[in-house]
Design brief:
Blueprint lengths: L1 E8 L2 E7 L3 H13 L3 E9 L3 E3 L6 E4 L5 H9 L27 E9 L2 E4 L4 E2 L13 E5 L3 E12 L10 E7 L2 E5 L7 H9 L6 E4 L2 E4 L11 H4 L5 E5 L3 E8 L5 H26 L1
Parallel strand pairs: 5-10
Antiparallel strand pairs: 1-2, 2-16, 3-10, 4-5, 6-8, 6-10, 7-9, 11-16, 12-15, 13-14
């Protein structure tokens, strides 16, 4: 197997795999989606009852236009920057799940209406580097006499437990493809040109009866061109041992960190499997 980095940005990456199979690349995809850990808000404690603003003397009702469960769900989906060298799962922590700075992070929310509560209002207690990555995410709108006072606890988990712990997004792979043209009865250059023009702009070009893919990394976008020719003159030949692998992250981990963890975890699993097989033999 050979791997080439086509693109590596803080929150996205594209790799090219060659000399391998789709099942091997798909194993990396599955680990990226389900098993890379991150911090996410798990528990939310809402203050109930009246709230007085000491500065203005106004009284507010601790309620919102949504059920508390709905607000908690939205809080859980906020992306939190995660240092996997600092945080670990509660089940793996020396505090035995009691909760400590090594396995959880605390946040507070204190807003009074009328206003919209945003992710920037979810304030980390202690470490400012744990501030929500996307501060402009709206959470809930408060009316004139409504208030939201809550404390939230973020813990480490994986998407295998809940989607709020999913680090990698839009994870997919595609193969390079070659367009083979064999004109059938009734097919003409005009027909082939119409087929080429049925695809999004910038995907293929048509000249002298040939359809050329302009960017081999976008081969998946030509999948419908065979049906665009009613005479069946177009055939797609997909590479069996080359793949373009793309993914993004929600920002809780960089693309490099997420990929490094996924590969290390996959390697550990294969080593465990090998040891188990050797023990049987």
């Amino acid at each position: 197997m050979e791997v080439a980095v086509r693109s590596l940005k803080p929150r996205s990456a594209m790799l090219e795999f060659s000399g391998t199979t789709s099942s091997q690349v798909n194993a990396i995809r599955r680990v990226l989606v389900a098993d890379v850990p991150k911090l996410a808000i798990e528990d939310v404690e809402f203050h109930l009852g009246p709230i007085r603003d000491e500065a203005t003397g106004k009284d507010y009702d601790s309620s919102t236009s949504m059920f508390d469960e709905g607000v908690a769900l939205r809080l859980g989906l906020l992306p939190i920057p995660t240092d996997l060298g600092q945080f670990r799962k509660r089940s793996e922590c020396t505090c035995n799940g009691a909760g400590c700075p090594s396995c959880q992070a605390m946040y507070s929310i204190d807003r009074k209406g009328p206003c919209t509560v945003y992710a920037r209002d979810v304030v980390p207690l202690g470490d400012p580097t744990l501030a929500i990555i996307e501060p402009e995410i709206p959470i809930v709108r408060l009316g004139a006499k409504q208030a939201l006072l809550a404390y939230a606890t973020a813990v480490v988990g994986t998407a295998r437990e809940h989607a709020k712990w999913q680090v990698a997004l839009a994870v997919g792979l595609s193969s390079p493809v070659e367009i083979q043209i064999s004109k059938k009865l009734g097919c003409s250059d005009a027909c082939l040109k119409r087929a080429a023009e049925s695809l999004p702009d910038g995907v293929v070009s048509f000249s002298d009866g040939k359809i050329t893919i302009l960017d081999e990394t976008k081969g998946s976008l030509v999948a419908g061109i065979e049906e665009a020719c009613p005479h069946g003159s177009i055939k797609l030949l997909w590479a069996a041992d080359r793949f373009f692998f793309r993914f993004e992250t929600d920002g809780s981990l960089s693309a490099r960190e997420a990929l490094r963890y996924a590969l290390k975890d996959l390697k550990r699993r294969f080593e465990d499997l090998r040891e188990a097989v050797q023990a049987i033999a």
